[in-house]
Automatic annotation (TrEMBL):
Keywords: Signal. This is Sugar lactone lactonase YvrE. Residues 1-26 form the signal peptide. It comes from the Bacteria. PANTHER family: MESOCENTIN, PTHR31460. Coiled coil: none annotated.
Length: 340
């Protein structure tokens, strides 16, 4: 058997001392070097003719954006170099609207509706009547389940599932733009009507309830497009919802929302082609302007938060789709927010 250490006095200490010093120096040097965070792009441009995505999320683990499509229904993955690939697809995806990446539960939530733009999947039974939630596995894009929502209130002539949020217990909340409803899906997949109130209704053909986020203090913040309003809805008493006082702000056509932190909310206004940064010092009883980001007139819809940036906004070009522009738009942009 070979001898690794001599038994002579002082040998071990003499041999190990330089090694210990070298290790200490290496550790010190490593700690002294500032490691720059990964660079984030100013914009990601991807080309898929006629895709018309509305929803946007960022998957930090996968290093990709996720986008939906009003015309194809499929969920797509977009890399920073603009490469687009299909992440998930299913016949139940007529038009994919709002997306939510629920990282703690490894799932992607998709609000599904039928505005009539997916010619392969629209039907008379679903046209402007569909409100559905689809849940996918984040890792492999497999469909976990779909949940019918519009069927909870068949008395309304039209439905449109628009956006989703998740509370701390994993309950999902979904807005309906054509009916004055917010749905709730619990951890077991059971759907109920969380809030129904005539004050949340919109005129026929107009979009009412839209973007939604969960605030960790126990309430939802919900956008209403036609009114340019923001609502605070307590989870413990949804019927006691209140209007956030935004006096002096024009939030008409408010669409997607993202909570940057507990006191900062990002809000897209699609027809205005502008993203607002709102701040509150009183638990969202009131909100004031903290900055704006102007976009091209390409109908911005959704915001995704991403490490290393204030966030990104999707230019959906849905105005071109609604106008039946020919040829269809082929390039779409995910732009980094830089508030002024």
């Amino acid at each position: 058997m070979p001898t690794f250490f001599s038994s002579s006095p002082g040998f071990t200490a003499r041999r190990l001392a330089p090694l210990a010093a070298a290790l200490a120096l290496a550790a010190c040097s490593k700690n002294d070097i500032a490691i720059a965070p990964p660079a984030v792009p100013d914009a990601v441009v991807f080309t898929v003719p006629g895709l018309y995505p509305e929803g946007l999320q960022y998957d930090a683990t996968g290093g990709r954006f996720l986008v939906g499509s009003q015309t194809a229904g499929a969920l797509g993955a977009v890399a920073d170099d603009g490469t687009y690939s299909v992440f998930a697809d299913d016949a139940s995806l007529v038009s994919t609207i709002g997306l939510y990446f629920d990282a703690p539960r490894n799932r992607v939530l998709v609000a599904v509706s039928d505005p009539g733009y997916n010619k392969q999947r629209t039907t008379a039974a679903t046209l402007r009547k569909l409100a559905r939630l689809a849940i996918f596995n984040r890792d492999n894009g497999q469909l976990v389940r779909t949940v019918d929502l519009g069927g909870l209130r068949p008395n309304y002539a039209t439905h449109f599932a628009n956006d989703a949020a998740v509370d701390g217990q994993g309950n999902i909340y979904v807005t309906d733009s054509f009916a004055p409803l917010i749905y709730k899906i619990d951890a077991q997949g059971t759907a109920t009507v969380f809030l129904e109130d005539a004050r949340l209704a919109a005129p026929a053909g107009a979009f009412g309830l839209n973007g939604i986020v969960y605030h960790p203090d126990g309430y939802l913040l919900v956008a209403k497009s036609d009114a340019g309003a923001l609502y605070k809805v307590p989870l413990s008493n949804p019927a006691g919802f209140t209007v956030v006082n935004t006096t002096g702000l024009n939030l008409s056509a408010i669409d997607g929302l993202r909570l940057q932190d507990n006191n900062t909310l990002q809000a897209v206004t699609n027809a205005q082609a502008k993203v607002y940064r709102l701040t509150s010092a009183d638990g969202w009883a009131t909100a004031t302007l903290g900055g704006t980001f102007a976009t091209p007139p390409q109908y911005p819809t959704s915001i995704a938060l991403r490490p290393g940036a204030d966030g990104y906004v999707l230019y959906s070009n849905l105005n071109a789709l609604q106008a039946n522009a020919q040829p269809p738009v082929s390039q779409f942009t995910i732009a980094r927010l830089r508030f002024q």
